[in-house]
Fold each of these.
Amino acid sequence: MPNRKLQGEFNKHGLPRQIPNPIKREVRRRSGFGCVVCGATVYTYHHFDPPYADAKKHDPKGITLLCAECHSNATKGLLSDDTIRKKTKAPRCLEQGSSHFKLDIGGQFPIVHFGNSLLVGNPTIIRAFGKPLFAVDRPEKSGAPFRISALFYDREGRETCRIVENEWHGFIANWDIECTGNQFEVHRAHGEIAFRMRHVPPNELAVDRLDMFYRGFRVIIQPDGRTTTYLPDGQMWFQWDGASLIGNNAVIVIE
């Protein structure tokens, strides 16, 4: 049997590399759900006080969020522990109100998986009262990427997250935002998923879970992939179990 300590799963004190989920959540919320230095949503958990090699426990006070570039700079000695301590006390995301990440979108019309539905060539995914809430715009010039923009709100009318011409923003007022691999997940409260998105560059985007509100209307993507829209009085308006829509002007229209 291979020695797990030699495989890097434990440090010299026998501390496992895997950080318990409640501690990860505490670190994420304190950091504003992104790299404390630059604000990037895609991050790693970095032990800085003490370094992981010397840590005897996973103390959230000594753990912070760093993006891959900032983490690499820290391990190479190009980003000092003193700077990391200062940024941990004043994270970039808390200063700007959100974390951010630039999505890698290519020059072909994006394929959007919306729950169980497959949407291709639809310039508007959701339009409400004439306002595009989820749209795909063509490139501004030849060779440039397609541009995805979207706005998502909770029942109080607050934005949970947005995409502005391929740049994702997750707001610090949320209860939690977790980035795992290529997946972004926003929680409005414990156990309440407001938004879950997967991005597969260069041209696939999957919204797997959604619970959004706009002027009383509610759009939900259920755990089984069904999409349901409710009227302001709470009555169900329509429901999809799955569809393939190609070239429609708009998919969900709320008037």
Amino acid sequence: MKLLESVEQPTPNGSIPSDALLATYNLVVRYGAAVALDGVSMYVGKGEMVALIGPNGAGKSTLLNTLSGINRPAAGKIICNGKLAHVPEGRQLFPELTVEDNLRLGAYRGGSRDPSPMYELFPQLHRLRHRRAGGLSGGEQQMVAIGRALMAHPDIVAVDELSQGLAPIVVSDIANHLVSLNKQNGTAVLLVEQNAQLALDITSRAYVLENGRISKEGRSADLARDPAVHKAYLGGQVSR
């Protein structure tokens, strides 16, 4: 992805700060005649944790794949003022390689290939470092996928469906690691997640993506109290 100079431009629901690490402006992505993203404008600032929630098929993974250069936008603009690392949906590890080799692949474009910092972040991985990634549990694989992304020393990490297929206690543990990473290192996080409760609990701002468009945005705590968001994604009416 090309790194561009930071600019400030209006979005449909406000403005994007000039120091935003990552931003999209009126982004449009099509699959043939089908429109997957229709004028999406959003941003992640330095050191922020931002959530993107929405139903299946809303375009959440399409947005991350477009930010990472996998998809080509039909219109709009992407601005990235730092290094972005992507933790893809389903982890997408190399199952025949060891944990350590999977981690080292994250630094293939330069930088240190020493995985020691990842073992400090995820101590469980140190004892598993010589195990094949394909033989790990889902939670362990998710730790490897996040660690592999962090080996690139990114300014922002985009995590697609952190909780997918994992037990709640495992999700909570990995989420806590992400929060610690953000607080200690200042690494910005874009969390794309169907588990809206988890996403809104650990982030400061959030966007709701529906039918390829941003339908709501704001502080995570405010969206969690929004009756429409609560009914659609949090299981009922807002507590009074």
